[in-house]
């Protein structure tokens, strides 16, 4: 496979807007509205969040974001690989990149919220391969029967 180009993204390009719209539409299709915690473009454009996009041969293939929760704790947000590119290591590359960036920023813990249904099992397995384990709600989250929370410490 051609190299994956992961770059910091200012969320201004039409490709990323379209990708995030498809991602949000899908989240609302598979999760009750009150349990969708995916962020739109405006919510991602805040100083506490760094957003990366992944490109192969000039085409957008995925994205991921890191939210600084303070106190050395970061949250993975907006992790997504375009459907036709799944299974090619893009998600692994994005998560590895985010972990490296979190370490470089001095973070000591990463956490995330994903879904509870079968649709989200591949994401849960990806995070487990990186050492994430199930945990309770963190940050501003409360208990939600549709959410699955995971965390890991960083060396």
UniProtKB/TrEMBL annotation:
Residues 4-155 form the N-acetyltransferase domain. InterPro entries: Acyl_CoA_acyltransferase, Bact_Acetyltransf, GNAT_dom. Pfam families: Acetyltransf_1. Coiled coil: none annotated. GO terms for molecular function: acyltransferase activity, transferring groups other than amino-acyl groups. Keywords: Acyltransferase, Transferase. This is GNAT family N-acetyltransferase. It comes from Roseitalea porphyridii.
């Amino acid at each position: 496979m051609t190299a994956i180009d992961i770059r910091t993204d200012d969320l201004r390009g039409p490709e990323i807007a379209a990708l995030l719209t498809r991602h949000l539409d899908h989240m609302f299709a598979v999760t009750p509205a009150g349990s969708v915690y995916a962020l739109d473009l405006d919510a991602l454009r805040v100083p506490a969040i760094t957003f990366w996009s992944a490109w192969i041969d000039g085409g957008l293939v995925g994205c991921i974001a890191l939210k600084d929760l303070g106190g050395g704790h970061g949250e993975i947000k907006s992790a997504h690989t375009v459907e036709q590119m799944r299974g090619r290591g893009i998600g692994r590359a994005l998560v590895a990149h985010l972990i490296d960036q979190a370490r470089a920023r001095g973070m000591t813990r990463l956490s995330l919220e994903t879904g509870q249904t079968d649709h989200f099992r591949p994401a849960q397995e990806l995070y487990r391969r990186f050492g994430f384990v199930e945990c309770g709600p963190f940050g501003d989250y409360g208990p939600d029967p549709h959410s699955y929370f995971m965390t890991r410490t960083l060396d």
